[in-house]
Amino acid sequence: MVGMEEIINEHCVMKRILIRLLLSLCVVALVSCSAKTSRLVSSGLWENWEAYDQLVQVDYPDAVPIILIHGWNGGEFSWPGPHALIAMETQLHRDIFFFNYRTGVIANRYPPIELLEEQLTTYLKQYSQVDIVAHSMGGLLLRQYLSEHNDNPVRRILLLSTPNFGSNIAGLLVDIGDIGYTGNIQASELLPGSDFLWQLNSLEGVELQGKSVLNVYARAQHELLKGDLVVPASHAWLPWVPNAEVNGDHHLGRRITEAWAMDFLTSGQLPTLAPAPSGRELWLRFQPAGRSEPLKITQPSIRRFDQAHVFKDKPFGLCCENRSGLHPLGGTSLILKDVVPGDVVRLFLRNGTRGALELHMGNLLKKDNRPVQLIVLHPG
Predict the structure, then answer these.
(1) Phi and psi of 307, rounded to 5°?
(2) 107: which residues sit within 8 A by CB, 6+ positions away?
(3) For the chain, which domains are there?
(4) How far apart are CA 171 and CA 174, in angstroms?
(5) Is the pTM of this model over 0.85?
(6) N or C end of the chain: smaller count of CB under 10 Å?
(7) Per-residue pLDDT, 23
């Protein structure tokens, strides 16, 4: 009789074989391109890198430089092309530099965001003052850096398409990383409710105080495959800073030459600000009084009802089964989506303090617009 472990191993082997087959087909397709096409592509790449070499030279040593921090699987290509950035430098009379770090799809052996922050710390020590534009996960990296360094050279911050409250797409990236037994630590930290994001957002924006900040994200679209399919507005919106929305997709880093970005980088001028997205989301953890670690909870222990006492099927999520931060908290994040004041959540907890806990969303929503809340459970 074939054991369960052998079946699982065989399944994993088959997945790896299929992936390698697909990669082989891609290689064959690429090789089949004409020599003429190859020469044109190569010529274009060399031209771009020659322009990048010109871009990273110091041309305005007395002006505050602009540092670009890309997101997950990003790099120089996350921004406008080098010629557009050179023109931007000329217009602003300021240098533009890249901070690049290890990230990507292949190999997946990339450091957690907390360790990338140490690299950013070393990089920024050479500057007395900087303005920073950060795209996607780069915004989280910057916020992590600021949370650890009160004495820093950062003056202005432009956050673009940043998953301040996570990205559901990260779950797919975690699954892809698990195929090769190497995992994807950065993706696990991007999961809504992860240890990393919980600790960062528990600061309630303290790390950004004293800075000129603008958080920009793509306006929500109701058409299929429109808007930002990676970070929805409800996950990008940051309640402690000015927020603005623009038409577009996730790749807002390529649009920093537009007026709304140029005005902010020039003088700190803010565009028309956006209200909070209509879909409220709450992250909750539960910790018995006298204990240092939150509780682990499971889906069967949770019930949610609307104001008419009608059961709502699975309008919540849980994070995380696996470790999701360099400094794990333990316990589980309960992610309540589309929260309205009339909703009630009941939890059946076996923690030695109470059998069932009833939470009225109206009471939680009154707590100063706090999207991340730790609930301490007292006996009785």
Answers:
(1) -65, -15
(2) 182
(3) 42-267 (3.40.50.1820), 281-377 (no CATH)
(4) 5
(5) yes
(6) N
(7) 46
pLDDT for the residue numbered 310: 84
Round to whole Å and give the CA distance between 131 and 296.
Answer: 41
The string over 180-217, giving b where at least 16 C-beta atoms fall within 10 Å of a residue's C-beta and e elsewhere, is: beebbbbbbbbbbbbbbbbbbbeeeeebbeeebbbbbb
Residues 355, 84: Cα–Cα separation, whole Å: 62
Look at the block and give the residue holding tokens 């617009």: 369
- Residue 178's contacts (CB-CB under 8 Å, 6 or more residues apart) are 184
What are the structure tokens assigned to 184, written together?
């994807």
pLDDT in tens, 252-264: 999 999 999 999 9
Amino acid at 304: R
Structure tokens at 212: 């000129």
CB neighbours (10 Å) of residue 79? 23
Closest-CA residue to 133 (of 203, 64, 223, 220): 64
Token code pair at residue 286:
């539960």
Q: What is the DSSP letter of 188?
A: H
Q: What is the mean pLDDT of the segment spanning 111-129?
A: 97
Cα 140 versus chain centre, distance: 6
Q: Residue 159: which of 218, 202, 102, 201 has the closest Cα?
A: 218
